[in-house]
Amino acid sequence: MDTVKIGIIGCGNISGNYFRTVQSFDILDCVACADAFPERATQAAAEYGIARACTVDELLALPEISIVVNLTNPQAHKAISLAAIAAGKHVFTEKPLAVNRAEGAEILAAARAAGVRVGAAPSTPLGGGLQTCRRLIDAGAIGRPVAASAFMMSRGHEHWHPNPEYYYKPGAGPMFDMGPYYLTALTTLLGPVVRQSGAAAILIGERTITSEPLNGQKIVVETPDHVTGTLEFASGAVGTIITTFATLNSRLPRIEIYGTEGTLQVPDPNTLDGPVCLARGRDEWEEVPLTHGHTVGRQQWGMGVADMAHAIVSGRAHRQTGAQAYHVLDLMQGFLECAETGAYHRLDSTFERPQPLPLGLDERLLD
Question: pTM of whole model > 0.85?
């Protein structure tokens, strides 16, 4: 098999999942890593057997690198992605694509002009859980999908994250942090959205960090910590979503899809596996065996990178596209704008629903 050489920029909290992904797929060969803090890159290279730890400019200058994986913080996504595109590299970026529509559109326009690909996390729709849901919906297991609900109910990150202040700044909050998982799952299953509404508020204006090493420090919340909205899909289905950092407990499901002949309970879109549960008519819920593999927890968060590599080699379209990531960004910004204006937002963005994975794939392959 041809291998595709990649370089990873950003060796922080989530990078380990991506380095492990490289080791999980035969098509990927990570030849370099870089970080604004050189010691992080050096440590990652030693831990994961990467040949070269270097600066960002040095990594971008390596001619053998085809894909740059951008794992920097969201405020840096635009600058790093544009620099990689200018260097002639394909880009796969952590979520979100950018912090607002204007930056996201600039990234996509630059990629079109340069003739390179853009992909974006989350990769979890490629996992066995959501691929099983996609197969069931496409096969008509719940009839025609008519509605959906999605609930990300959380108390916030100050209880576990070592540096949680960022999550309460503009460009973050529960919608921009966790919304990409839920909105990418919903749009993968049901297609693009044409109109939305939203409401949002800061419900807990000051937070106390209880995690180490900043235990006891206060956080002033500067962006809504509770965002809710409606989604009108091009297919005619209507959805509801809540993302919050202001709840202690909840029994709400993560995602449910309601059809004319049944209901599908979708697993946590921040994971790759199940359970997938189905109820038809008044029947009891039944757990459905997963039809696809690739279910190894969070160690394959970077599956979209491997899928892009396969697509580059074969010439097909990759599945976690910049167009879908921009559509999700459009939605996230739209919820906050609707909350401010009290008006609906009609979306200009759209995307082609990605092709499902074929059945029976080897766990080290995505083609």
Answer: yes
